[in-house]
Amino acid sequence: MRNRILSLVLILAIGSGAALFTGEAKAQTPTASANDASPDTQVMALESMCAETSEARASRQSQKSLYERLGKEKGIHNLTEEVVRLHLKNDDIKHLLDGVDSDKLADDVALFLISGTGGPSVYDGPSLTDSHRHMKLTNADFMAAGRDIIQAMKNLGYEQNEIDDLVCAFVGLRGMVVLADGSAN
């Protein structure tokens, strides 16, 4: 049951989350001025952009799942390994991974993504809220992690639509990981 709920939540986020583009075909990477805005303002802008592009992303998902477009299990495992590698080098968030087995983290996140992007239901770990509660993440942490996700996808040669779709999926799940006083926002 948890796997079905997880898959539904991530698929809904893909269908209704925020992307880094406006319009159906034009990708728009954040500019320096957008990065100078506060993390709260950046998150609000991402949420707005994702809402505006939800139909285009839902259409892409219905034509070919994000799971397939990310390269199925192998591609997703490669992606999560690259994201974790970047997180460990990111001065803004690397402290959050102190004492964490980075290989296990990459594997767990890969299973989560495989299950939530249209692949087989293989994730049976804790909920996002349970696994992030102790971290007391802020929107600044969320944005720093998001920049690593985008960079990892660029490093691995993903197209802008896949970057936008995955970023929007994570934006749609933000309230489960960015926690205030130990409870979901």
What is the count of β-strands?
A: 2
Derived from helix and strand composition plus strand pairing, the structural class reads: mainly alpha
What percent of the residues sit in helical stretches (DSSP H or I)? 55-70%
| Total discrete domains | 1
Tell me what the CATH architecture is: Orthogonal Bundle
**How many helices does DSSP assign?**
10
Poorly predicted parts: 1-33
CATH class, please? Answer: Mainly Alpha
**Main pleated sheet:** 2 strands, antiparallel
Per the CATH scheme, the topology name is Globin-like
Shape: globular
Characterization of the model:
The protein has helices spanning 2-16, 32-36, 39-52, 54-63, 66-69, 72-89, 102-116, 128-132, 139-155, 160-177, and strands spanning 179-180, 183-184. It is built from ten helices and two strands; from the N terminus they run ααααααααααββ. The chain has one domain: Orthogonal Bundle (Globin-like), CATH 1.10.490.10. It has a two-stranded antiparallel ribbon. Strand 1 (179-180) and strand 2 (183-184) form a beta hairpin. With 185 residues, the chain is an all-alpha fold. The protein is 65% helix and 2% strand.
